[in-house]
Amino acid sequence: MNKAIERARPEIKIKPEMKIIRNPDEMQALANRLREKGLVIGFVPTMGYLHEGHASLLRTARQQSDAVVLSIFVNPTQFAPNEDLDKYPRDMKRDEKIARQEGTDYIFYPEASTMYVPGYQTYVNVEELPRSHCGRTRPTHFRGVATVCTKLFNIVLPHRAFFGQKDYQQAAVIKRMVKDLNMNLEIMVLPTVREADGLAMSSRNVYLQPEERKQAVCLRESLEIAKDMVRKGETEAQKIVAAMRRHIESKPKARVDYVSIADTETLAELETITGEAVALVAVYFGKTRLIDNEVLKAG
After folding, report:
1. I need a surface site. Which of 8, 116, 132, 251 has the fewest CB within 10 A?
2. What is the pLDDT of residue 15?
3. How far apart are CA 289 and CA 294, in angstroms?
4. Of 54, 133, 159, 247, catalytic
5. pLDDT score recorded for residue 3
6. Cβ burial 229-240 (10 Å sphere, 16+ → b, else e)
7. Residue 255: which H helix or E strand, with range?
8. Which domains, and CATH codes, for the chain?
9. What is the pLDDT of residue 139?
């Protein structure tokens, strides 16, 4: 699909004043017009409260697309009743500023009532990938993610959609869904963007108290431990997991949700690393749950 897109892509770039679109039907009609003109649509779906990680996705989308669409939608179907839907950070003025700085053409900013109309009853469920890791403690989360991404893809009609590697399981679920349902778009997963001390950028980092924020770098440090052990020849997954867990649990504010070495595609737990694997961690600091990951290469 890449080559076909590149061959068909015109030399022009659309540069209207950035427009905010609230209505799904209006967004879809616009997307159809862009496609009819032969323009490549790059799409960055977010829940807002943008940071440098999102900005990096927008920059790459700008480089690879004629029209860049950013969606901002705090999706209620991926939150359980006891999670932070109402408290999830929001700052639309700040988001608009960042979007403009990165050359975004359109922001799709719908209301929940227009995305999930009265009587709504259709959901997308990927069967196996969501059952492990984050899916154990958030059993309805990935159904909500798959459903909203399907809706957004149908509304925005992108050629390429851009995601960050920090949400590794989410990206794996979306890639699987796109492949299984023969969706006509390419999923681009870009490297995790980090703070200066190594903590993965996340909208939820603002929840951390000062001492929690200081100790939260243990996620990245545990992944570096795993990377170093594999570099030195260790391939037994449980030994690596144990070393990672010991480091995280040495931090008084940290409470481990999971530490895992898994297959990069299926996310099945591994006993031995041969070739590539992914180390995944999820840790609570108070009520704030942080995740991170690192691809490991043995041999």
Report:
1. 8
2. 52
3. 18
4. 54
5. 42
6. bbeeebbebeeb
7. strand 254-262
8. 2-190 (3.40.50.620), 203-297 (3.30.1300.10)
9. 94
